[in-house]
Design brief:
It is a single chain. This protein is of the alpha+beta class. It has one domain: Carboxypeptidase-like, regulatory domain (Immunoglobulin-like, Sandwich). The protein is built from four helices and eight strands, in the order H-E-E-E-H-H-H-E-E-E-E-E. The N and C termini lie far apart (about 65 Å).
């Protein structure tokens, strides 16, 4: 009986040394698919765009709130000004809260691996066929152990 127990324990040790992360119940990944839905031509993948996985909702941070106010103190609703803020002055804010980043493939897909379960925000800016209306996402998602999926589209575009 001891020999069988020792053999099983040795086998488990060998398996863990070659890939224990696949056996870990807390390992998580997030598969994101981004697409823009047009009235004519249907959904198109958001290809070759960078998406950020953030540890907080950057829109709620005081630095973002202050950067998005105009001279009268009103929160800007203009989508382009919001995008330019995050591409310019707000870029450091995004970097400070970035967990991972990745570029979508030609199908509009990117995967974030080796995540701890918890709440994350997927942030991205994508060009559309209408140059004056880029798409911007800042979508909260709860990642659980295992494979998680998130679809980004016009429906959950933030602005």
């Amino acid at each position: 009986m001891q020999k069988v127990t020792l053999t099983i324990a040795a086998s488990l040790l060998l398996i863990c040394s070659f890939g224990c992360d696949t056996l870990s119940p807390s390992a998580a990944s997030l598969q994101v698919e981004a697409q823009i839905i047009y009235n004519v031509g249907g959904p198109q993948p958001v290809a070759r765009e960078t998406l950020l996985l953030l540890d907080t909702d950057v829109d709620k941070l005081p630095e973002a709130q202050a950067g998005l106010r105009d001279a009268r103190g009103d929160l800007l609703v203009d989508q382009l000004k919001r995008i330019y803020f995050f591409l310019d002055k707000g870029k450091n804010l995004l970097e400070r809260h970035k967990v991972q980043s990745g570029q979508t493939d030609f199908k509009g897909q990117v995967t974030f691996d080796n995540l701890k379960p918890g709440d994350y925000w997927v942030f991205g800016i994508a060009q559309t066929r209408t140059e004056a209306r880029p798409m911007i996402w800042n979508v909260k998602t709860t990642v659980k152990p295992g494979i998680n999926k998130l679809a980004l589209s016009n429906d959950n575009s933030g602005f």
